[in-house]
Amino acid sequence: MTLDELRTQALQCHSCLLASRRTNVVFGEGNPLSPLVLVGEGPGETEDLTGRPFVGRAGQLLDQALEEAGVGRANVYITNTVKCRAADWQGSKAINRAPTDAEAAACRRWLDPQLAILKPQVILCVGAPSAKNLIKPDFKITRERGLVFESPRARAILATLHPAYILRQRNMGGDGGYKEFVSDIRKAWGLAHKYVEETAVKVIQPSLF
Ligand code: URA
Mind listing the pLDDT tens digit of every residue in the chain (209 residues)? Predict the structure, then answer.
């Protein structure tokens, strides 16, 4: 199955109740050949309206951090644990909420094959929900962010703060951990490149002898 075929199927998904109020399925976008894949929590309002991941305020902070880390959004692939917006509805008003475990579990039917097709060298979980899903259920973001774990889905997996968390902390007068956010992205990118180079050496070396 190709990524486009998987996307076409995901756009029709009705595996959970989030499908009933969504505007768009936010499948993911970016460079499918990138050695680094970022996995966030799930789309918010702007993402739901546009069908693109991380394009609201949190997304703008992510873009800024990617630039500062010397990566650039176009060089990575970005997706989410859950592909439809999770919100509680009061009439026509939606209030964003975290996806439930059941919603995240239902969406594994898209995330798992998506990562299997992308085959990244490194996965960077953006925020605790993604890390709890892809690293371990008791992941503690403040204590374990930036640490490198083994994964069946990539050569390495690590997690960083969610940009929405940084924005909330800043609103309360704190620094929010932006410096750590940038340094985690830089670390993930550096690791991904190290693995690419190692693989290239392995491919080239036999022909030298
Ligand atoms: N937050 C996420 O986790 N993902 C998005 O796509 C947007 C905001």
Answer: 999 999 999 999 999 999 999 999 999 999 999 999 999 999 999 999 999 999 999 999 999 999 999 999 999 999 999 999 999 999 889 999 999 999 999 999 999 999 999 999 999 999 999 999 999 999 999 999 999 999 999 999 999 999 999 999 999 998 899 999 999 999 999 999 999 999 888 777 666 65
Q: pTM for the full model?
A: 0.95
Closest atom, ligand 1, to C-alpha of 80: 4
- The tally of domains found in the chain comes to 1
Instruction: Answer yes or no: is 204 within a domain.
Output: no
Q: State the closest ligand 1 atom to the C-alpha of 130, by its place in the atom list counted from 1.
A: 3
Whether 40 is in the pocket of ligand 1, judged by its Cβ within 6 Å, is yes
Q: Domain range for residue 113?
A: 3-198
3-class secondary structure per residue, 21-83? HCCCCCCCEECCCCCEEEEECCCCHHHHHHCCCCCCHHHHHHHHHHHHCCCCHHHCEEEECCC
Best residue among 80, 124, 141, 181 to mutate for probing ligand 1's pocket (most ligand atoms within 8 Å of CB) is 80
Tell me if 31 is assigned to some domain.
Answer: yes
Assigned domain for 209 exists: no
Q: Is residue 11 part of a domain?
A: yes
**169-173, long-range: CB < 8 A, 24+ apart:** none
Q: For position 174, which CATH number holds?
A: 3.40.470.10
